Amino acid sequence: MPVTDSLRVQGATPGTDSVAIDFQGRAIRGRRGETLAAALTAAGERDLRETKAGERRGLFCGMGVCQECLVEIDGRGNQRACMTKLDRPCSVRRQSHLASTVDLPPPTHQPVEDGDVLTPNVLVLGGGAGGLNAAATAARAGARVLLVDERPQPGGQYYKQPLHPARHSALPDDAQFAGGRALIAEAEAAGVVFLRGAQLWGAFEPLELMIFDGQASRLCRPQRLIVAAGAYERGVPFPGWTLPGVMTTGAAQTLLRSYAVLAGRRVLVAGNGPLNLQVALELARAGAEIAAVIELAGRPGVSAAAALLKMLTSTPGLAMRGRAYLAEVKRRGIPLLHRHVIASVERAGDRLRAQVTPWPAADGDASTRSYEVDTVCVGYGFMPSNEILRALGCRHAFDAERGHLVTERDGDGLTSVAHVYAVGDCTGLGGAPAAEVEGIIAGLAAARSLGLAPAAGQEQAVARARRQLRRHRRFQSGLWELFRAPRLLTELASPETMICRCEEVTLAEIESGFDPGTQSVGAVKRATRAGMGRCQGRYCGPVLAALAASRRGLSLDEAAHWAPRPPVKPIRIADIVGS
Ligand SMILES: Cc1cc2nc3c(=O)[nH]c(=O)nc-3n(C[C@H](O)[C@H](O)[C@H](O)COP(=O)(O)OP(=O)(O)OC[C@H]3O[C@@H](n4cnc5c(N)ncnc54)[C@H](O)[C@@H]3O)c2cc1C
Ligand code: FES
């Protein structure tokens, strides 16, 4: 049921090339170049697939990780609406548990041939802040660089670009858009070859990578690999988190910043960390009503002085930006509740009703607040996308403070595996400014290791990058002291809450799936199928690993997590074998 006729931001390019979509018999007009998810959201269609149990699911991560937005396009199932670029009229059907296998189009590509192997000097995985800088730097030093990214446009998460050039966009051109634009232009000018909309799905030792370029799977044998695969949002399960209309803060940001589409007219934003505040303001500036921002961390008090000082003395510009965000939240009258969480979300007619409670709840505290909204955005921080690195055997250590694995690297970004470098958030969530300078450092190191000499000014750029990196790391540590909060696992879940979204496994089923003898995460997977779904355990895996480790009294080291196996992201057999 559509929630509203159009969620497009006013002022978008007049006369934009439109594309006809038939969605379940309803005629919708999308914009050429935007994703199918953006067009459907703009038209108020948010129920995109149906699970085995008959539940509806919709756009959740918005970045190709969760697989909740799978639809059938022209009879071809398992297509991620958030990653599908609209380039022709199409007929779209809600996907049921098993995609239909009828009416598949004839094969459109040729088998991979021997001569088809990609052999760049440097392969860069990821076109975000880290990858673009690494690629541009290595290319300027003379390397033949191939950059692969599964998104239709480069820029990654921080530098995601608007569909239309800034002067035609419905959104004001800001420093993030302009910075990304300049970086992409710099990489192009340096001679980097971009493989857009291409997914790296397999990594095999010593250095063989499989890439699906949208037409065929190609083997890539680079001399050096720089992984800059970024991060995805951490899943914190609570009753109602699988309902269509509940999505990650990042998904709402992508809809808005890339496609000028509002995730909803009235939106509740909740979780932990600065991105929630930023996205709430971006939505408000674009015309959405923000019901409230719910923050798990406490209100910064006197004890925050040290963290603030750390931020001010390391990167004063970013610290002042944070202050400006808070002032704008106040000026706009957006309620900001600290030490609160969303306890549950349920359907309320065409809308959603969210219950918000203090956390931790004090004894006898009954101060639950209820919000009726059409969209709930949730962001509890990130998890590094380190599957490719782990598949290649790069060593990782568990960082108890940060709650995730961190890639072991030397000062140049070289991992424990020869010729494999890693930069940015995939190594341990350092933020965009750190990803940028790590990219410069690793890009030149990779080029040098190939015997190439730095171009004019590159030595100085790397020396500057090393100084900046120290400052950015100091800033980041101050920032997270400011937003320090308990790391929630299943505390908000009820026994009926889905922990594994893909395989529909509840908390109660997982609890009873633990074998009393071994308490192992592998056993619970075999007993319940949790982790065997299409997201390949990216959302439920960290929760299960933490539950198992705490039951066994062990630390959450690399062995406590499931080993990544190819394909690291789902891909059709036909696209692997090229038939
Ligand atoms: C959803 C989201 C929104 C964010 N928004 C902000 C923000 O507004 N402000 C802010 O300060 N920070 C934001 N962050 C954090 C910020 O994006 C990062 O700190 C910064 O982008 C890190 O840069 P990076 O190069 O490491 O990764 P990214 O910028 O995330 O780039 C990684 C790229 O790798 C690609 N990729 C990953 N795996 C594959 C694969 N197997 N095949 C092909 N391509 C692949 C992805 O498509 C992506 O484009 C956000 C993070 C997320 C996850
Ligand atoms: S949530 Fe996707 S496999 Fe469990």
Supply the key terms.
579 residues, 5-stranded parallel β-sheet, 14 helices, 28% helix, binds flavin-adenine dinucleotide, binds FE2/S2 (inorganic) cluster
What does this structure look like?
With 579 residues, this protein is an alpha/beta fold. It has 14 helices and 29 strands. A five-stranded mixed beta sheet has the order 2-1-7-5-6, covered by helices on one side. It has a five-stranded parallel beta sheet with strand order 10-9-8-14-27, with helices on one face. Helix 5 crosses helix 7 and helix 6 (305-314) crosses helix 7 (316-331). The longest helix has 25 residues, at 458-482. The protein is globular, with a radius of gyration of 23 Å. The chain starts with 17 loop residues before the first strand and ends with a helix. 49% of the residues are buried. Residues 102-114 have low confidence and may be disordered.
Write the layout of secondary structure elements.
Elements lengths: L17 E6 L2 E6 L4 H7 L6 E2 L5 E2 L12 E4 L2 E5 L9 E5 L27 E4 L3 H12 L4 E5 L25 H16 L2 E4 L2 E6 L3 E5 L4 E4 L3 E4 L3 E3 L12 E3 H11 L6 E6 L2 H12 L3 E7 L9 H10 L1 H16 L4 E2 L2 E9 L2 E8 L10 E5 L1 E5 L2 E3 L2 H5 L4 E4 L4 E4 L12 E3 L9 H18 L8 H25 L15 E3 L4 E2 H7 L7 H8 L12 H12 L20 H5 L2
Helix pairs in contact: 2-3, 2-9, 4-5, 5-7, 6-7, 6-10, 9-10
The structure holds flavin-adenine dinucleotide (FAD) and FE2/S2 (inorganic) cluster.
The site of FE2/S2 (inorganic) cluster (FES) has 11 residues, from loops.
